[in-house]
């Protein structure tokens, strides 16, 4: 007994070590896979943002290239460009023509604005304070035309932006560089308007380097750089170009706010730089999910399963070893009992290994990377419960086989009350019963994602028949879910697809196919009856379970 306890303790120690090693490996793999997925998603988003910015910068270059020695005082300079700027479909808020007017042109410009029908045609400062044009002794950058023209924007023309704290320096830089220049983020249209960015491109007079005006495009910041899928792995922010300790953040409705970054706050997982309007913009990406916590949860589940399997193995080993010791004391009167015990141990080891291999495959396939933990937990419990049910039925029949109708009991598969079963009540072998039990559970567990095409739960019919004559009899099984379609039926899991298409058919030496009709989902399985019944396995089990006669 002491030696038996030592062996069981040693097996338990090995099991604990292997469970810990498996949990550690799963933890590291989950972290690595989550990191790769996050980095890939961020690279795709940054690339899409850069493409979007490049399109808008190209629009500014095309628009500026279409001007030919314009008259600065005209108020309809965007008229020839309307078809071109809308063809790009870049979703700008306002496109504007800002003319650089000399003092002598201001009176003419006012008259032109009045003729064009703008609500406030006077030349004034950017904050609508009036200017005395008679005292102006320097060129002014005045808004002369815009697109679209609406009730909200007709009052803007006539404003001079050369002294604006953001627009003024931007226009000066665009005039000096001759390339499109982007402004700092500012409210658009009004002080409490959406936060956006203005892109300006200088229009040069033919043959000179002096700008006669600027074409500007205003874009909202949220769709320009911070647009993101609600189901994505990250949240994106824009670093304030004037203060790196602040970040522009978009909420679910697309409203932008400036968030200060305090000491001790988490840092972005990744920072990417995009180029727009002659300057670099830093995008910060924060991971939405705690990859470490998720990896720990998965590792804990793997460790718990490993410890449970270790306990089962130790319990089975202890039980078998204890019976071996007890029976060895009677070897003098029952020599034949030793042969039976050896056979039982071999068969039990064989069946335990098969069961453990199936459970290991179930666990590995169910807890794959990227699966939802709640759904995976539900499927894992259901699949193991299906295995447990078929083992119970086999144990009750001393592994002589299982009646096929017994695999449709409510304790084995979900929604058994909605399944109509038709077919001869044949007894299938242990191997076939294990495959069919998992097969029936997988089919039933994916048949109730929601209401069917007629507003009710799908009606399920399971039929089977045996055709032909011995020894060439063929087993035909057909599962059909009526009033369902690919849109209403729950999508099969990766493990389920492998089980339906490969594992179950190969276990019985047959073939399978699944498809949707106009009103139902169908799964068909065909296999030789000799593999479904497997009399060789049944004969071996009968020999093992036969009573041993005492030695005379």
Quaternary state of the chains: single chain
Number of strands: 20
Structural class: alpha+beta
Summed over residues and divided by their number, the pLDDT gives a mean of: 81
Radius of gyration: 38 Å
CATH topology of one domain: Heat Shock Protein 90
Largest sheet: 6 strands, antiparallel
Q: In what range is the share of β-strand residues? A: 15-25%
CATH class of one domain: Alpha Beta
Descriptive overview:
The chain has 552 residues and is an alpha+beta fold. The chain has helices at residues 2-65, 82-87, 106-116, 167-177, 221-226, 291-328, 335-366, 373-396, 430-445, 494-507, 529-533, 535-545; strands spanning 94-101, 124-125, 140-147, 159-160, 181-182, 186-187, 195-204, 211-220, 234-239, 246-250, 256-260, 270-276, 279-287, 402-403, 419-422, 427-428, 459-467, 474-482, 511-516, 520-528. It has a domain at 368-545: Heat Shock Protein 90 (2-Layer Sandwich), CATH 3.30.565. It is 43% helix and 21% strand. The strands form five sheets. Strands 1, 3, 5, 6, 7 and 8 form a six-stranded antiparallel β-sheet that branches. A five-stranded antiparallel β-sheet has the order 11-10-9-13-12. The chain has a five-stranded mixed β-sheet with strand order 15-17-18-20-19.
List keywords for this structure.
elongated, phosphoprotein, about 20% strand, membrane, alpha+beta, Heat Shock Protein 90
Précis, in short:
The chain is built from twelve helices and 20 strands. With 552 residues, the chain is of the alpha+beta class.
């Amino acid at each position: 007994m002491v030696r038996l306890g030592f062996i069981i303790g040693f097996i338990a120690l090995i099991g604990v070590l292997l469970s810990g090693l498996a949990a550690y490996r799963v933890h590291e793999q989950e972290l690595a896979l989550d990191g790769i997925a996050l980095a890939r998603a961020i690279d795709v988003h940054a690339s899409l943002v850069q493409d979007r910015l490049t399109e808008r910068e190209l629009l500014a270059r095309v628009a500026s290239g279409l001007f030919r020695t314009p008259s600065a005082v005209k108020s309809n300079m965007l008229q020839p460009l309307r078809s071109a700027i809308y063809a790009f479909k870049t979703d700008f808020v306002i496109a504007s023509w800002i003319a650089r007017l000399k003092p002598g042109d201001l009176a003419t410009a006012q008259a032109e604005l009045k003729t064009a029908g703008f609500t406030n045609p006077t030349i004034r400062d950017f904050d609508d304070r009036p200017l005395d044009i008679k005292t102006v002794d320097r060129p002014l950058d005045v808004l002369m035309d815009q697109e679209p023209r609406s009730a909200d924007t007709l009052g803007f023309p006539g404003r001079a932006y050369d002294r604006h704290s953001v627009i003024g320096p931007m226009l000066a830089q665009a005039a000096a560089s001759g390339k499109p220049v982007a402004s700092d983020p500012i409210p658009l249209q009004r002080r409490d308007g959406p936060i956006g960015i203005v892109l300006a491109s200088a229009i040069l007079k033919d043959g000179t380097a002096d700008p006669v005006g600027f074409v500007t495009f205003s874009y909202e910041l949220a769709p320009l750089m911070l647009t993101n899928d609600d189901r994505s792995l990250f949240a994106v922010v824009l670093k304030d170009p004037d203060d790196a300790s602040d970040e522009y953040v978009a909420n679910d409705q697309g409203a932008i706010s400036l968030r200060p970054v305090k000491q001790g706050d988490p840092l972005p997982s990744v920072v990417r730089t995009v180029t727009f309007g002659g300057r670099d913009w830093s995008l910060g990406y924060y991971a939405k999910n705690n990859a470490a916590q998720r990896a720990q949860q998965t590792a804990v589940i793997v460790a718990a399963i490993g410890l449970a399997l270790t306990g089962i193995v130790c319990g089975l080993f202890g039980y078998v070893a204890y019976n071996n010791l007890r029976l060895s004391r009677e070897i003098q009167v029952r020599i034949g009992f030793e042969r039976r015990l050896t056979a039982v141990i071999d068969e039990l080891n064989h069946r335990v290994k098969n069961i453990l291999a199936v459970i290991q495959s179930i666990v590995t396939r169910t807890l794959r990377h990227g699966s939802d933990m709640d759904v995976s937990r539900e499927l894992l419990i259901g699949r193991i419960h299906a295995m447990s049910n078929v083992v119970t039925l086999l144990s009750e029949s001393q592994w002589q086989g299982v009646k096929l109708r017994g695999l449709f009991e409510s304790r084995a598969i979900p929604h058994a009350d909605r399944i109509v079963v038709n077919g001869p009540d044949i007894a299938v072998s242990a191997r076939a019963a294990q495959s069919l039990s998992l097969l029936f559970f997988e089919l039933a567990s994916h048949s109730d994602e929601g209401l069917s095409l007629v507003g009710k739960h799908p009606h399920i019919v399971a039929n089977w028949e045996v055709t032909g004559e011995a020894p060439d009899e063929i087993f035909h099984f057909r599962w059909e879910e009526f009033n369902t379609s690919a849109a209403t039926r729950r999508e099969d899991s990766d493990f389920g697809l492998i089980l339906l298409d490969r594992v179950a058919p190969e276990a019985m030496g047959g073939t399978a196919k699944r498809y949707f009709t106009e009103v139902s989902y169908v799964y068909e399985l065909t296999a030789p009856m000799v593999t479904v019944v497997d009399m060789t396995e049944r004969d071996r089990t009968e020999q093992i379970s036969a009573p041993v006669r005492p030695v005379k």
